[in-house]
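Why does residue order matter? Because the sequence determines the fold. Keep that principle in mind as you read this record.
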Amino acid sequence: MAIRDILIIPDKRLRLKSEPVKAIDAEVRTLVADMFETMYAAPGIGLAAIQIGVPTRVVTMDLAGKEEAPQPQVFINPEIVSSSDEKSVYEEGCLSIPEYYEEVERPEKIKVTYLDLDGKTHEIEADGLLATCLQHEIDHLNGVLFLDHISKLKRDMVVKKFTKAAKKGVAPSLAKDKEPSHHIG
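Structure:
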C-alpha cells in the first residue's frame, strides 16, 4: 500500500472520463488499497481513482464518524440508475479543491449499481450523506467537479485562485480543516 499524490485543480486530468474496470485483478486490488490509504491520510470520506491520476471507474468511501469503527466501501464501475425528484443541499468539499466548501444541491435519493472487489454486482438505494458522496464521486469518474454545480461566478473565482497558485508552484493545503466529513473526495 502507498499514499499517492492527489491531483489538485486546475490539473486537466480531473476532467478525464474514467474507463470501466474490465477485470478485478491484483492491479485493481492494489489501486483500491492505495486509494484507502490516500483517502484516510488526506483525511477524506471518499476518493475517485482519477483523483490520484488513474482514469478507472473505482471509488473508495468510508462514512464512519470519528468515534466509529472504519466502514470501508468499494464501488467498481458505479452507475446511477435512478434518482429522486426531491433535492437536498449539502456543503461539499473536495480533496482536489482543498480548503474550499460550497453548498451543492443534488437529488436526495439515488439508486446505484456497482461491482464489489469479488466482482459481484450490487444495487443500493442511498440517501443522505451516502447519496451525496456517491454522486460527488461518480461525477469525478465522469470528469465533473462539484464546482460545476455552483454559479459560474463562484466557479471562475475558485479556478482562478487555484490556477494562480499552481503557476507560483504553491501547493494548497488541507491544514486548516482536518474534518474528514468536509472532504468528500
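The chain has one domain: 12-168.
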